[in-house]
């Protein structure tokens, strides 16, 4: 973004600039400025952005769309996949991420059977084993990159095992999903957009091959369950099945990596809160909610207005791309109080964070992510007194943001 789009301090001249130097390392001062100066912000690049808790929550629970067919004004920063036909859209636009009711309701009903509370709770022993094995390796080595050793492998392994993805595919799949998640970033350059489309096609082909193999070789896994999923005679088409598997695979680990790594970093930077969790392990469930609030794993969530949307006395027209800034809402002092920028694991209303969305589009895998985080944070602080942080490097993303590297020395 050019210099003339850098933020200024009057509402008339202010333009939110997520491309400013240092933004991806610490966006929160920028979000505070956005909330204060332009809480309902029409950006010159062709989108609107909401940043206050009340407004974000209102939009999440509204009936506005996630389907790009309703766009009458394409944002300048939007990936060019929107103009190249559905075969070039991520997952062909068929995942529950891109569907409105009633089709969203139908797809979610077929997919959600694998994410019931009972099904998720049954995974806890396996998650505990994976976490303990990682902590053993870290303790033996004396130092580690927590992203590479724990925050990434845990959710990646869990969702891979849930889906029944053959181990032989994992290395390439990790590369492809890492590319695809960048489709959620604004203003991808043409070369990256081409890489995203190529990764989309390749992952589609791999998942199609795996699902075809599963038809003849069923197992105790999510792909097999989705192949058999039926409700009143309704089943997923082949393209719908592939889209849901791709979505679950990507969503099942990419955002959880940020929750785990960002949460561990927050604890290490706040030793008083780390000690509190050590002394009061019963706080673990609430601690996860506070981590979700304090450093949100996914910062932006979009809607397309299907009718004028009134907020704070302003009216957003029909057919506009509207971004809810979840990370800004999660630190809005008008809702959270004067200590909104502070980490407080015993914050009584931490569960009211907006990190997993709300309404019909509430995150399908929220319970699984919470379980993985609770086990990780609890066992980490029980195992290590207060590791020293050697290096932190952020992943450079605006939306799906978190540490790319978190090197520690354990004691």
UniProtKB/TrEMBL annotation:
The keyword Transcription does not apply. Its EC number is 1.14.13.151. GO terms for molecular function: heme binding; iron ion binding; monooxygenase activity; oxidoreductase activity, acting on paired donors, with incorporation or reduction of molecular oxygen. The keyword Nucleus does not apply. It comes from the Bacteria. InterPro entries: Cyt_P450, Cyt_P450_B, Cyt_P450_CS, Cyt_P450_sf. Keywords: Heme, Iron, Metal-binding, Monooxygenase, Oxidoreductase. Signal peptide: none annotated. Belongs to the cytochrome P450 family. This is Linalool 8-monooxygenase.
